[in-house]
Structures are given as structure tokens and as C-alpha cells.
Task: inverse folding
């Protein structure tokens, strides 16, 4: 990460990353060229290449920034002191809120991996690292809910999330989120042996 003489992150780098994030998420990665990013960020190509040696470096930085935003958001829930089941519900509600936002264009990571299918590509590896972190976070929380091994339930949670992210671009996002939240609640009720639904 490039810093200026005061030790702060370079303003040009921040502007490039903000521009790339907006364009990559809204329009796709391959469809957005370097020239457009440079023009909209109001920097020179030389400035871009000083901070990001190639486009894939910028793509990886974009995904890492989204990852950090997700970590910060989930970190708030983890730091709330609530029981694990309530933290998982809060995470699910946060996901649902994103799906219902006006700017929602699907999952940034699923979108990216569709454009970079090679498992050895740095972008693909960045997506997998994010997903491993998210799965581990959910698994650790579910281990605190009920007494059976949490791995299957965690994968179920992630698959529900993935489905909601995809369907949220195709169907009524309110209905999609209602289905997703009911599914998460079902996972939690199954683990605790409860049969009553929770609103």
C-alpha cells in the first residue's frame, strides 16, 4: 500500500480504488478498462501503475477492500456481546439489507470468480480466501448453538446466502430476503431442537 510523506494512504490510490470498486461492481471486471478507470479517477496511467502494477492487482485490491468492509460489519456483530444465535441472525439481516439496497448487483466475490475461473489465478484465490474466512466465522458461531458438529449447518448457511445473493438480482428482493431469513432461522431452530418460529 502506497503512503505519502505523512504516512497516510495516497489520495490517488484511494481515488483509483474507489473508482474501480464502483465500476467493477456495477458493470463487471472485464468490461471495465484501465483507460476508463484512469479517466474517472482523474489520474494518469503512470500514477495507476505506480500503485497497481497491472489490472489484476487492482482487482485483487478491490476484492480485499470489500472483504475488509465485510469483516468490519461482521466484527460489529461479533463484538455486540449477544448470544451466537442472535449474532448469526444479525449477520443474516445485514446480508438481507444489502440485497434490498438500490445499488445491489449480486455478490462481488461470486461475480468476480465467474470472470476468473482459473483456481490458480490471484483473483480466484482472493475470492476463495474470503469465502474460507466467512465459512469459518459462521462455523465458529454455529459451534456455540446446539451440540452437534456445526460444519454441515455452516455450509447450509453459506449456500442459503449464495442463493439469496444470486436470486436477489432476479426476483423480488423482499421475498428473497424473507425466504433467506426463514432459512437461517430454520438452521438455528434445528440446532437447538426448537420447533417455534422466531420473527
Result:
Amino acid at each position: 500500500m502506497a503512503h505519502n510523506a505523512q504516512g497516510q494512504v495516497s489520495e490517488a490510490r484511494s481515488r483509483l480504488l474507489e473508482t474501480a470498486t464502483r465500476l467493477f461492481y456495477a458493470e463487471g471486471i472485464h468490461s471495465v478498462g484501465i483507460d476508463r478507470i484512469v479517466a474517472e479517477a482523474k489520474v494518469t496511467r503512470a500514477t495507476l501503475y505506480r500503485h497497481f502494477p497491472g489490472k489484476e492487482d487492482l482487482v485483487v485490491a478491490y476484492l480485499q477492500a470489500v472483504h475488509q468492509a465485510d469483516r468490519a460489519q461482521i466484527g460489529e456483530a461479533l463484538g455486540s456481546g449477544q448470544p451466537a444465535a442472535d449474532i448469526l441472525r444479525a449477520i443474516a439481516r445485514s446480508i438481507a439489507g444489502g440485497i434490498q439496497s438500490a445499488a445491489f448487483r449480486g455478490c462481488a466475490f461470486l461475480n468476480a470468480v465467474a470472470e476468473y475461473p482459473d483456481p490458480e489465478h490471484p483473483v480466484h484465490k482472493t475470492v476463495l480466501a474470503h469465502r474460507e474466512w466467512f465459512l469459518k466465522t459462521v462455523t465458529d458461531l454455529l459451534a456455540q448453538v446446539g451440540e452437534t458438529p456445526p460444519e454441515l449447518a455452516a455450509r447450509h448457511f453459506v449456500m442459503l446466502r449464495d442463493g439469496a445473493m444470486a436470486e436477489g438480482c432476479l426476483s423480488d428482493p423482499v421475498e428473497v430476503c424473507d425466504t433467506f431469513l426463514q432459512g437461517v432461522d430454520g438452521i438455528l431452530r434445528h440446532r437447538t431442537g426448537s420447533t417455534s418460529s422466531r420473527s
